[in-house]
Amino acid sequence: MKLIDAHNRRLNYFRISITDRCNLRCQYCSPRHHTPMLAHEDILRYEEILHLIRISVRLGISKVRITGGEPLTRKGVCEFIRAVNQVEGIRDVSLTTNGVLLKNRVDALIIAGLRRINISLDTLNPEKFKIITGVDAFDQVWEGILKAYQAGISPIKINTVALRHVNENELEDIARLSFTYPFHFRFIEYMPIGITGKGLSDSLYTPEIKQILADRVGRLIPVEHQNSDGPADRFRFEGAVGEVGFISAMSHHFCHTCNRLRLTASGQLRSCLLSDHQQDLKTPLRSGASDEALAAIFLKAASLKGIQHSLAADTPVQVSSRMSSIGG
Ligand code: SAM
Asked: Residue 8: inside a domain, yes or no?
């Protein structure tokens, strides 16, 4: 049996949050009020996650992304990535990080087999970085990005959540970096989930961002879409060494091509980022369920995957889960 959902989408991509803890408090991601973190024993152990990955591979998963919370805050993450890379049938392992702890981990990550990385960065201004994230760490992140670049990690994707009145006036500067660095600068539409104090009116949608960039930076030349691209629409400017991309989950959702399942740090399996529905894997896993029984839970999650999310619908569904607990 393979993970093929009721809408004939083949699920081969598993995004795994290894911790709900983060060393930043991004205003659009973390809740405004302190919410309790998972107790240590409620977070899946690495061996447990590896067990689930092996089961998922038999069901057709071949690609894994490690996320969080901030994955680099969890002890042993590089050894874990190495172990994921060694799972037979896994062809691609990637990491999403805020970059704060990256600089000193780059070498270990490369030894672990990591070849590509996504780094979140919403501003080039250290003061604004502090306002958005609550932490004065812009320089650390930038040094981490440069270290990853010098060490040959490629591609490096820089993810920027575009927010009105927050980094709206910087999008062109971020895009211009594609003339200097061969990175993929990706602008992500803000998704209003969790209780963050931000709402739909804070979103900047792709058509508007594209217009800003076309007016102020240059013509956006489409780059041919590869199967491995995921949901980003890719472009480059004439003469640039890098690219820009747009992830338009709100204005032009890409649910019809969604090939993802997600595992939260507490062992809940989710078939849609923007829905609160989840299947509990941790309880059966810890009570000794057979691999077949665990595989059946994966198949059930796939069968329940909705045709598309409803966040931008006329009567939007509220999603209470925090992005920081699901992993983005
Ligand atoms: N800590 C890591 C990081 O910062 O990349 C991984 C987890 S973070 C939740 C993953 C991604 O989700 C980040 O790029 C972040 O900017 C993005 N994100 C968080 N909340 C979001 C939201 N409400 N809408 C769109 N993207 C969001």
From this structure: no
Whether ligand 1 lies within 6 angstroms of the CB of 67 is answered as: yes
For 258, counting Cβ atoms within 10 Å of its Cβ (0-12 exposed, 13-18 middle, 19+ buried), the class is: buried
Q: What is the mean pLDDT of the chain?
A: 94
- Report yes or no on 105 lying in a domain: yes
Q: Which domain holds residue 27?
A: 13-326
Structurally, the chain folds into a number of domains equal to 1
Whether this model's pTM surpasses 0.85: yes
Tell which one of 29, 119, 250, 263 to mutate to probe ligand 1, the residue whose CB is within 8 A of the most ligand atoms. Answer: 29
In a domain, 2, yes or no: no
Please indicate, yes or no, if residue 3 is contained in any of the structural domains: no
CA distances for 209 relative to 72, 79, 119, 131, 214, angstroms:
31, 39, 20, 22, 9
**At residue 14, does pLDDT exceed 80?**
yes
